[in-house]
Amino acid sequence: MTVTRFGYGAMQLAGPWVMGPPADREGALAVLREAVGLGITHIDTADAYGPHITNQLIREALHPYADSLHIATKVGATRDEQGGWPPARKPEELRRAVQENLENLGVETLDVVNLRLGDAQGPVPGSLAEAFETLADLQRQGVIRHLGVSNATREQVAEARAIAPIVSVQNLYNLAHRHDDELIDELAAAGIAYVPFFPLGGFTPLQSSALTAVATRLGSAPMPVALAWLLRRSPNILLIPGTSSVTHLRENITGAALTLSDEDLAELDKIGR
């Protein structure tokens, strides 16, 4: 499976706190169509977004999907009435989640399914064996092409790889949060993609005088520079910045064309140190 390194994360297409429908449905559909129109071939989603709504928007905007378009989804968490993300990693919960993703995306096979681990605060140590073996079984049945893990510890990544091949690890990582540096390098050596979520800092965007200084020097907004740094960080990093705005989508993607000098990189590297 070959995808553009610059993808799109669909989390923000649902309503506030990733619950309910978007305030501007046509705007959400326009963002998805613009992403594909700009050449993006990698969309990240989850049926828990909404729940169900984001995947339904993807289907409405883009189905039937181009052969070049690959959609990665996540299972392992659901939503509660308070907007929380309670775990749902029992075998029957995972099978139901996979089925709901298939139905809402309108496909017979899911390109990539990431097992979401941990909680809203980050990875939580513990075995993923039962859950990941369930997904590996569904892969053998032909409803999943590729597997990955999300919000995982280094030990959980190793445990998953011992059960079945994985194509990606999706963890929190950006200029200011560099805890996965060693894992990124290990995965690069193994040919496994690393997909940072919240590459721009999450709901509180990255704020840094160094980032602003480099952006000013390059004649860019700060966020594209943060994305350009990630692309330079390692060749196995795939980006999935999210937005509900066509304007912001276009701004973000300019990061793919930015050239960072050694001076720029040295200045940016200090942010997470």
Biggest sheet statistics: 7 strands, parallel
CATH architecture: Alpha-Beta Barrel
Strand content: 5-15%
Task: State the distance separating the first and last CA atoms.
Answer: 34 Å
Poorly predicted spans:
none
- Rg (CA only): 18 Å
Q: What features would you highlight for this structure?
A:
7 strands; TIM Barrel; alpha/beta; 10 helices; 273 residues; seven-stranded parallel β-sheet; single chain
Brief digest:
The protein is an alpha/beta fold. It has a single domain, classed as NADP-dependent oxidoreductase domain (TIM Barrel, Alpha-Beta Barrel). The protein is built from ten helices and seven strands.
Give an account of the 3D structure.
This protein is of the alpha/beta class and 273 residues long. The protein has a single domain, classed as NADP-dependent oxidoreductase domain (TIM Barrel, Alpha-Beta Barrel). It is 40% helix and 13% strand. It is built from 10 helices and 7 strands. It has a 7-stranded parallel beta sheet with strand order 1-2-3-4-5-6-7. The longest helix is centred in the middle third of the chain and has 15 residues. It is globular. The two termini are 34 Å apart.
